[in-house]
Design a protein that fits this description.
Strand order of the largest sheet of chain A: 8-7-9-5-6-10
Number of helices of chain C: 7
CATH architecture of the largest domain in chain A: 3-Layer(aba) Sandwich
Chains: A alpha/beta (443), B alpha/beta (904), C alpha+beta (154)
CATH class of the largest domain in chain C: Alpha Beta
Largest sheet of chain C: 4 strands, mixed
CATH superfamily of the largest domain in chain C: Glutaredoxin
Strand content of chain A: 5-15%
Number of domains of chain A: 3
Shape of chain C: elongated
Largest sheet of chain A: 6 strands, mixed
Strand order of the largest sheet of chain C: 2-1-3-4
Radius of gyration of chain A: 22 Å
CATH superfamily of the largest domain in chain A: NADH-ubiquinone oxidoreductase 51kDa subunit
CATH architecture of the largest domain in chain C: 3-Layer(aba) Sandwich
Strand content of chain C: 5-15%
Bound molecules: flavin mononucleotide, iron/sulfur cluster, FE2/S2 (inorganic) cluster
CATH topology of the largest domain in chain A: Rossmann fold
Helix content of chain A: 40-55%
Number of domains of chain C: 2
Distance between the termini of chain C: 29 Å
Oligomer: heterotrimer
Chain lengths: 443, 904, 154
Amino acid sequence: MNKPLTEHIKPGAPPIDLAAYERTGGYEALRQALASMEPGGVTSMVEESKLRGRGGAGFSTGMKWSFVPMGDQAPRQKYFVCNADEMEPGTFKDRFLMEHNPHQLIEGMILGAYAIQAPTGYIFLRAEYHASQTALARAIEEAREAGFLGRNILGSGFDHDIHLHTSAGRYICGEETALLNALEGRRAIPRAKPPFPPVVGLWGKPTIVNNVETLYNIAPIIRHGADWFNQLGLTGESGTKLYGVSGRVNRPGLWELPLGTPLREIIEEHAGGMRDGYRFRGVIPGGASTDFLVEEHLDLAMDFASVQKAGSRLGTGTMIVLDDRTCPVGMVLNLERFFARESCGWCTPCRDGLPWVEKILDDVERGGGREDDLDLLAQQAKHLGPGRTFCAFAPGAVEPLQSALKYFEEDFRRHFNGNGCPYRSESAASGTRQVPPGNGHRI
Amino acid sequence: MATIHIDGKPYEADPEKNLLQTSLTLGFDLPYFCWHPALGSVGACRQCAVRQYRNEEDTQGQIVMACMVPAADGTRISIEDEEAREFRRSVIEWLMVNHPHDCAVCDEGGECHLQDMTVMTGHAYRRFRFRKRTFNNQYLGPFINHEMNRCIQCYRCVRYYKDYAGGRDLDAFASHNHVYFGRSEDGILENEFSGNLVEVCPTGVFTDKTLKTHYTRKWDLQSAPSVCAHCSLGCNTLVGTRYGGARRILNRYHYDINGYFLCDRGRYGYEFVNRPERIRHPLLHEGAHDTETYSKPETCSADVALKEARIRLRRANRIIGIGSPRASLESNYALRSLVGEDNFFNGLPAAESHLVTVALEILRHGPVRSASLREIEEADAVLVLGEDITQTAPRMALAVRQSVMRTPRETARKLGVPAWHDRAIRDVAQSDRGPLFIAAIDETRLDDVSTAAITRAPNDLARFGFAVARALHPEAPPVDGLSESDTTLARQVSDALANADHPVIITGTGLGNEALLQAAANVAWALLRCEKPAALAFVVPEANTFGAGMLDGRPLREAYDAVSSGDADTAIILENDLYQRTHDVDVDRFLGGLKSIIALDSLRNATTDRAHVVLPAGTFAESDGTFVNNETRAQRFFQALPPEGDIAESWRWLGRLAAGSAPSEEPAWKYLDTIIDAMVADYPELRGVRDAAPSADFRSNGARFPRSPRRFSGRTAIHAQFDVNEPSPPADHDSPLSFSMEGSTAVPPASLVSHYWSPGWNSVQALNKFQEEVGGANRGGPPGICLIQPEKNLHPFFTEIPATFRRSGEKFVVLGLPHIFGSDELSRHAPALAERIPHAYVTISDADARARGVSEGDQLVLRIFGREHKLPARIRPKLAPGILGIPMGFPGHAGLVFPVDGHL
Amino acid sequence: MLTDQERREIEAELPHYPRKQALCIEALKVVQHHRGWVDDEALCDVAEFLDMTPHEVDSVATFYNLIYRRRVGRNVIHLCDSISCWVMGGDGICEHLKGNLGIEMGETTEDGRFTLLPIPCLGDCDRAPSMMIGRTLHSGLTPGKVDDILRDCK
Ligand SMILES: Cc1cc2nc3c(=O)[nH]c(=O)nc-3n(C[C@H](O)[C@H](O)[C@H](O)COP(=O)(O)O)c2cc1C
Ligand code: SF4
Ligand code: FES
């Protein structure tokens, strides 16, 4: 009961099928809601649960749903979309859920669709997630056969069907409005906001987009109530969170823990601490587009508010650890190379700024760096910040850069004067940078 | 009105506009790229950043894009804010990262928005020290040159080409900093409005390929305001010239007509001015129509030509004058004065002449206004009856294409999305479009945005129109025997029109069908009776068709009769190749019956080849004069090119002819203003012509308005290879413009604007400074005067409904198919445009093709008036059986007057 | 011309979308599935089927990295080049692959057996480094493991 997302999951086991899901109380919440709750009641309960989106931005899920126009004047066609694009580097949480327990996502989606009265749902799944695709496709089929999807669900008069849509690549598809364009078969360029998708979304109709993990919380909330959900967190924020750790730790992996679990506990206990011979230098706490946290932050409670206060973002809650034998500049270079490549190309700062950042970092790594590159990089980071670009991609992209400049300035300097990467020579001496691979300890 | 604060000072603003547009209107130099007044905001380039404060207390504020924020009451922004400036500088720096810095060899150099914005933001030194990304360029056809490395990815080109003009063969490819604008593979850009890319693109990616063949920098071009000579809409143009040649056409903004855009015929048709087939000197032609002694015409001096012409006129028994719808009002009037009212013919075939009269009568005596293109653009329901406007009045089709966005824009407005927010509007609108109904003989290029498009024979199109009128109003005459589906559709159309706030009905003379004009009038009048402010748009064939029509000359047929009855023996033919108008047998008989033919024209043609005296007429580029457009708007065009050789306006030649023989004798009309005064005195209806533009004595601070730009560098260099003395510039007594070597900064009235230039604004976007508000009316009001105003009183409905089209036996009705490229007599001679003219063909309906075993491309032999025309077949699924179509005005069958009977 | 099979597969998706053009990406994936990549002819076929122009379809096709507008090998190796894999020595795996196959990133081996492409994070970060060949995910890569995997590819 205190691990609503994963309690029935056995890592490595095949996906939980409908019968097994129902045995553990699956689709109870749906039955309950359809039998005794108004759509608005579902939305209110989710609002009261204080569930915040797990896709990265942490927006209140219930509040988002409440923006959808309801009543007779509202458009009849609305859409409920699950964002299963998970392409944030370092993030491997949604895949884990979908591969193991697809029905809980479907139940969450139907509940959400009921709340906003949407007859059509889409799961926007990244193309590379073949196992998730198989699991979801089968689960949808089962749910349809059992009458949880389709016309007049469980005799309630509510119709809803879900279509599984697989993507064709590109990280920007995860941005919810770019995702809508991708679903419409267009280039995945983000849309202007406002108007927001709950008012003008897919094919111009009211649309809710929620992250996979967010939606896994819906059925438990409806079943056990908002109060129950509220008390799951440690620090006043509701629910649990899937926390992941990758990098040179002893037990990289993924755990469902109460929201607000301290960083130290996650890294030292769950991830087993740093590998022998490696020291902790910092961590990117929530996927590639969040600011570094460093040693001084180890006792931070990993909830939305605390991480924000420490100058970063909880993001996806999946962390990438930087150790003392890995070059922070190289790490940022890897990230910016990714972002430069994945920019959609719509707005100037992102399209032309990020490749420049990448080139400077690359030059620094190769020993071509100069003192004034630090200013140049800082300036780029500032001008790629929130509000200056068309969507949140570029501001996210420069978060690790700006924090690296703050925390690892010395490391940058050590590259200058034609030196190039000090870490590289170190690893060259030891033959290869290759370390024994991780083996994934999940929940 | 709202009050907004910019850098601490309050300003009045229109809350319906965004902050960028507002700032520009207020005169602030705020840089921008992706925004365009006609295309709206999308927030892509991030160049127009300003700092916005929440309220008076807020000192922090945040950076926002001015183009994406409404100028709502109480808005506070800073343009001067240091961080906003730094950010704007950064944006340019980013855009320059991959830019080749090739201004010196770039056609856009000196009139480049990117250059202007770079200077404006203060970005001067390059910090990017790495390799630039490069692209391959594409072949895009004869009009547009492509140089992708200069691209700054503002997305304007595809937004204009796809979203605005409806093109489907230019797009954005790839992503991140590899975004490429072009086609999937090399090839001709198909859209009829592709030329606007040249002005829409803020840098040198898309440039004018025809200019490239005789390139001149903007600051070396002499320019004058002109009016497009290639269809009846009268789009305003700027004609750039140098070294005795026309170099290019640019759009001249006219708020009510062409706005920011021209069609490709208008932009690229100009090169006929420079052709070798131009007549530059008078010609004498002794054995003009004696095939035995047929001699080549010989050039002679103006005096000799005039003398010869005068002798011939004196010897004449009766002189007839044949006017022309492509000649100016003044030239037509001059001819009419010379030959006298009874001897003046308007140069049109009888049927066309009649249609023009009918159209004019509807406008004169009907209660409905003639719609401007802007009104069409803003219409919320449009019915196009019979006319294929993409081919006959292209810019109107572009306006209609915008009209269908009105309804979706209204839907968006209800969701809180302002009208300028193009990005969001398209997300809301998706594929929804407002009502547009097209009734034509075949598919048209506008069908893709139509609510419904029907194809019928001309009479049935008219019947459909009458049925719409009837569905709107019970006093309109009923249409018997209409099919059930047509009745239903007529009701749907009438409902849409009746529900609209600004319905517009469009028709024209293209099908040669009088009933169509009357049906359209009935629809408009019925709407008016339902209290709807309907407007009516007539399309006529040529730049001055209505002008020629308003001088009430009689049709060609009567001129021919006057000769065949032995009455008249001498003709003066004004800018009119009769072989383009009527059947060559008739023309041959007519010309053969004349003792003397005096022709005035600019290009050699079959008619001038048979004249005894040919006088070199100025083209639009070398002339001052007035055209009356399809709205009956009189508009002045001015000499851009000092006439070379003996070239002169036809009215000037005719004035000299009229003056009699003594060399000292003054011509009847020495100046443009004198002839206009005389004309207005004769025709009170033309009163407005005088005010269509300021008269020649108009001055600003005692000075004329130079045709050369402020930065003209041509001074002593013009003929430096021959002579370093400065030639004195030609004098101009006809207009307040001057051929000068000094530019000036004075902003003239809109009708005299000869270039857009303003300090810091060297590109066409300097236009912002020539508008009352950016994107709004021309400063001092749009040029031209509408000559006909609607009557107050209602007009009784037309009641003569034609019978349903029934084919008789083996006979086909052959219709003329207008072509944007090819049907216009003058533009056809422009080499670039000529590349776009298709080979002649004949269209045949599916049913007829099947019945005769015809397949696509088969050579058909079409007999008209006993002559055989061999043409490849194009099978058209939507064409009505019993009808054939052949391109209008194409060599080989140019003089056919449609509709005409034909046999296969 | 689309094959009957391709047509059927695309048509099966039709009911799920309100507009035919929404199937653009889906249709490209279908033809790619059958033909290995999207050549110009396939592009035109899709365009015609969806009432689009080749330019419109290509505009979409070239945006997405998993639509191949160039010929690829029988086995497309998608090597994760994102952050966790990098930290865990993904560069070394990349060098090893390039050396083993004798090609650079983005290239295809001469025998048409392999194409090597980078891919953003495969969501396998705790078992990094990772790569995907076809539909199969390979985790915890070491040079030796890579060699074994390549050997098993046809
Ligand atoms: C560049 C970018 C990429 C994103 N990628 C994802 C993603 O892969 N998955 C996801 O759920 N949300 C992603 N998001 C966040 C979504 O835009 C959106 O906020 C989220 O799907 C909303 O769901 P939630 O409210 O349940 O978190 C991304 C945002 C940005 C700006
Ligand atoms: S995005 Fe705005 S942001 Fe850019 S001009 Fe274009 S005008 Fe402005
Ligand atoms: S970073 Fe490579 S699988 Fe996650």
